[in-house]
From TrEMBL, chain A:
The organism's place on the tree of life at top rank: Bacteria
PANTHER family xrefs: ABC TRANSPORTER PERMEASE PROTEIN, INNER MEMBRANE ABC TRANSPORTER PERMEASE PROTEIN YCJO
Protein family according to the UniProt entry: Belongs to the binding-protein-dependent transport system permease family.
Transmembrane segments: 38-67, 106-128, 140-160, 193-216, 242-261, 294-314
Membrane topology: Multi-pass membrane protein
InterPro entries listed in its UniProt record: ABC_transporter_permease, MetI-like, MetI-like_sf
GO biological process, one term: transmembrane transport
Name of the protein in its database record: Sugar ABC transporter permease
Pfam families documented for this protein: BPD_transp_1
Automatic annotation (TrEMBL), chain B:
Family label: Belongs to the bacterial solute-binding protein 1 family.
A GO cellular component entry from the record: ATP-binding cassette (ABC) transporter complex, substrate-binding subunit-containing
Protein's recorded name: Sugar ABC transporter substrate-binding protein
Keywords assigned: Signal, Transport
Gene Ontology BP terms: maltodextrin transmembrane transport; maltose transport
Example of a GO MF term: maltose binding
Origin organism lineage: Bacteria, Bacillati, Actinomycetota, Actinomycetes, Kitasatosporales
Keyword Acetylation (UniProt): no
Record has Signal as a keyword: yes
First and last residue of the signal peptide: 1-31
């Protein structure tokens, strides 16, 4: 990429001074610039319209709504919703359920992200070096969960986790231990969902990591080996530092995804038992679409947005490549 | 130029936004009942599938009317209705449950029912009351639904239970006997937690004489009767008579068939389900009225037919609803769906009048209690759901769990 990108920029730079002398006056140039601009705007209209209608408008509307008491009865008379200032936000931080949802989301992210990244890296390294045979088979195997619909995944996982005749319970019975009721117990429900999410997202991380690994020049490794580095040292001193951009990217993307976690608890537990798997997104969905407290749910959305923003900026700062 | 283009882009966006929000609210002219027109009807679940057949019969008798039935899944029904209401695009006729009716009446999306054409006395009171909101009636009851006790008669014999439990005390004794003598895994299946656990709890609550919100709109979730009912409910879990964790989508009829659950509370559709899926079970089970505490009272559910306030075919819609809810139409509907007719006159002939099982449903329906008309009812019951869950898991006493729920509900009842 780095060798190809400058080319169009350079040719553009050449064109501009070349175009300047043949214009007799400034006016013609201005007009053609205007025409170019217009063409540019016209070409981006499809995007602008779609972005405006489906992104910008809802984003602004949600922000406005979060300062109102918009509820069910305002559906047909949206303008009757009353402005309540920061009431929704104040209420949020006294809402036990929301605080629990925040905690659960943090739990999910703090445990889930390192696991996903760590396992993804491990699998990528194994596939890149260790396993020669059936490499495609393993790659497909690890990537298949990413492209499988969550509904199908949920059915399979529910069967695996079923306390009476599930796969783990069955294995447990053979080996002489009793499996806990994974989705029914407050202690085990969240770890079960994390395990499922890790399994589901491993593939994406793995693919990105393999691409990153293959971009590491063989000479560097060779040099390290000649200097007598063992496998662990090679991983720590060569692979991980050189993978830094990939690691940063996957961590940021996975963190954002996990902060927004919704599908797993929605299909598996509906937030139960006793709100043990209620995440911020699920709480928002319940408030917004089950109870129709749109103003309140919008406030939640903005709190989550600020949290995601802050964490992402922090990650970008902390993990920035300082060597360049 | 640049600024002009920006302005244009903003204008386009705004225009699109306005068309999205500003449509609807058109109240056109009314078509008379005998002019040529198309009625749009939304119905949910099984009803949505079967209604098209009835519509065909109706079209033959009324050639000027075309009925367009759109079946909608229950899982998406609420969202679709809200979206349609917001856009002013509700169909002429809609099937709606009690809590929906209160919500949409509160929104101003429903046309009040003409109480001269449809008379209160023709319907189960619990069916009729579901459509009442602030002095008006917004729906004509189409079918009703309640819960009764299903129990295994063959296992009852083994357990030494010689008749259906008639009181709440007998219910618990029966559950214990089933477990001890008939070796069933559980005694009674009731929901331990999660969404709509309250539907399992209503039988206990109403029979004890308790309520969540009283008729005059006061939160009474922690009344002594309600606390007693929840203590009773919780005791089944404490004694190991009921399963403490049930996965989502649990099908009780499977365990009823294999004998691990000998008793549960179920709706009328369960009878068809058992007959269809477990024909071998025939003759080994029966239904009984909800065991009495202070009284025997079950919850009332079901659906009504409503007319959209924006409809331009109100007269024809009323005719169609009349056809569906008179005694003849109701008896025909029962044959097609096994839904319990809301019109009491339909119960005077045929299988509905003679079948002893159907009589149980009828008596239960007569005393069944309706959820009060509260626009935030779903949110209110979710507080009860979590109170029940706390008690079932042994994390709080019935009193403290309901005290907490009471506090939340007080902020949710309509003023």
């Amino acid at each position: 990429m780095s060798t190809t990108t400058p080319t169009p920029a350079r040719s553009g730079a050449v064109k501009a001074p070349g175009g300047a002398p043949d214009g007799p006056g400034g006016r013609r140039r201005k007009r053609s610039m205007g025409k170019q601009n217009l063409a540019g705007w016209l070409f981006s209209t499809p995007f602008l319209v779609l972005f405006g209608v489906f992104m910008l408008f809802p984003i602004v509307a949600t922000l406005l709504m979060s300062f109102t008491d918009f509820g069910q009865r305002h559906v047909r008379r949206p303008l009757e919703a009353e402005f309540v200032g920061f009431d929704n936000y104040v209420k949020l931080f006294g809402d036990e359920q929301f605080l629990k949802a925040l905690f659960n989301t943090a739990y999910f992210v703090v445990v889930g992200v390192p696991l996903t990244i760590g396992l993804g890296l491990l699998v990528a390294i194994l596939l890149n070096n260790g396993i020669d045979r059936a490499r495609t088979f393993f790659r497909v195997g690890f990537y298949a969960p990413v492209v499988t619909t969550i509904v199908a995944v949920a059915i399979v996982w529910r069967f695996v986790l079923d306390p009476s005749d599930g796969l783990i319970a069955g294995l447990g019975a053979e080996l002489g231990f009793t499996a806990p009721d994974f989705l029914g117990s407050e202690t085990w429900a969240m770890p079960s969902l994390i395990a499922m999410a890790v399994w589901r997202n491993l593939g994406t991380v793995m693919v990105l990591m393999i691409a990153g690994l293959q971009a590491i020049p063989a000479e560097v490794r060779e040099a390290a080996r000649l200097d007598g580095a063992n496998a662990w040292q090679e991983l720590r001193r060569i692979t991980v530092p050189l993978l830094r951009p990939t690691l940063l990217y996957t961590t940021v993307i996975t963190t954002i995804g996990y902060l927004n976690v919704f599908e797993e608890p929605f299909v598996m537990t509906q937030g139960g038992p006793s709100d043990a798997t209620l995440t911020v997104s699920l709480d928002m969905y319940k408030q917004g679409f089950s109870f129709f407290n749109m103003g309140y749910a919008s406030a939640m959305a903005y709190v989550l947005f600020v949290v995601i923003m802050a964490i992402t900026v922090l990650q970008l700062r902390l993990m920035k490549d300082n060597t360049k | 130029m640049n600024r002009a283009a920006t302005t244009a882009a903003v204008a386009v966006t705004l225009a699109a936004a306005l068309t999205l929000t500003a449509c609807g609210g058109s109240s056109g002219s009314q078509a008379s009942a005998d002019s040529k027109q198309t009625l749009s009807v939304w119905a949910m679940g099984t009803e949505g599938e079967k209604l098209a057949d009835v519509a065909k019969v109706y079209e033959k008798a009324n050639p000027n009317i075309t009925v367009k039935v759109t079946p909608i899944g229950w899982d998406v029904a609420h969202q679709k209705l809200v979206a349609a209401a917001a856009a002013g695009k509700l169909p002429d006729v809609m099937q709606m449950g009690g809590s929906y009716m209160t919500e949409f009446a509160d929104m101003g999306a429903l046309e009040p029912v003409d109480t001269k054409t449809f008379q209160k006395k023709d319907f189960f009171p619990a069916g009729w009351q579901q459509g009442e909101y602030k002095g008006e009636t917004y729906g004509v009851p189409w079918y009703v639904d309640t819960r009764v006790l299903f129990y295994r008669t063959d296992l009852a014999q083994k357990a030494g239970v010689d008749k259906a439990p008639a009181t709440m005390a007998e219910l618990q004794q029966a559950a214990e006997k089933y477990q001890e003598k008939a070796d069933t895994k559980w005694g009674l299946s009731i929901q331990p937690g999660g969404l709509d656990t309250v539907q399992s709890f209503y039988q206990f609550l109403y029979s004890a004489g308790g309520e969540i919100v009283s008729k005059d709109g006061k939160a009474v979730a922690n009344s002594p009767a309600a606390v007693k009912a929840l203590e009773n409910y919780g005791s089944y879990f404490k004694k190991g008579l009921s399963e403490k964790s049930v996965r989502p989508g649990y099908d009780v009829t499977k365990d009823f068939n294999n004998g691990s659950v000998p008793m549960f509370f179920g709706g009328p559709w369960i009878m068809g389900l058992i007959d269809e899926n477990y024909p071998d079970l025939k003759g080994k089970w029966a239904v009984a009225n909800v065991p009495a505490d202070e009284t025997s009272a079950s919850m009332a559910g079901g659906s009504a037919l409503t007319i959209s306030a924006d409809s331009e075919h109100k007269a024809a819609a009323e005719e169609f609803i009349k056809y569906l809810t008179d005694a003849k139409g109701q008896a025909d509907w029962y044959k097609r769906t096994k839904d319990l007719p809301a019109n009491v006159n339909a119960w005077e002939t045929g299988e509905l009048a003679t079948d002893p099982n159907m009589q149980i449903w009828k008596t239960q329906m007569e005393s069944a209690k309706v959820s009060p008309a509260q626009p935030k009812w779903t949110e209110i019951t979710s507080k009860i759901d979590s109170a029940i869950e706390k008690v079932v898991q042994g994390k709080a006493s019935a009193q403290s769990a309901l005290d907490a729920a009471q506090g939340d509900i007080e902020g949710l009842v309509a003023k």
